[in-house]
Design goal:
Elements: E1 5-11, H1 17-36, H2 51-69, E2 74-81, E3 84-91, H3 112-119, E4 122-126, E5 133-140
Helix pairs in contact: 1-2, 2-3
Length: 141
């Protein structure tokens, strides 16, 4: 099968953006299921794929960080090919994520980026000519 399923959404970065991105990812998984004849959860075949929860977590973390650190619009691109899902988030902030000590007491975070990098097959950060950055995460599917 050489089909590809792709979804692109742009968000305003306002409160509620992360929830909208998760809903977009859920719709994307339904589209993948329609193409593959499967459940669309990436893990239903027992092949160790990423699974729906992993995809939703990665989308949530990347979009939430874009909204927190790069006020303004951000874009989400999801692309499925057999065996792989690519999650790309574009924002206007040039700085790249940095792992930091998780803060258990004040709620300041520090948990998301390490989770994303551990779950990913690969992570790539690029800087488009028009500014900002694009974080691309590949997941087994």
């Amino acid at each position: 099968m050489s089909e590809t399923v792709q979804l692109t959404k742009t968000f305003d970065g306002m409160p509620g953006t992360t929830a909208l991105a998760r809903r977009a990812a859920a719709a994307f998984m339904r589209s993948v299921a329609a193409v593959t004849g499967g459940s669309g959860d990436g893990g239903g075949s027992g092949d160790g794929g990423a699974g729906a929860d992993t995809l939703l977590l990665v989308v949530s973390e990347l979009v939430a960080n874009a909204c927190r650190h790069a006020p303004g619009p951000c874009s989400l691109l999801l692309r499925w090919q057999p065996g792989r899902v690519e999650v790309s988030v574009f924002d206007r902030w040039e700085a790249e994520p940095v792992a930091r000590q998780p803060d258990l007491l004040s709620g300041a975070g520090g948990f998301g980026w390490p989770l994303v990098t551990r779950l990913a097959e690969s992570v790539r950060i690029t800087h488009p000519a028009e500014g900002g950055k694009c974080i691309q995460v590949a997941l087994s599917w």
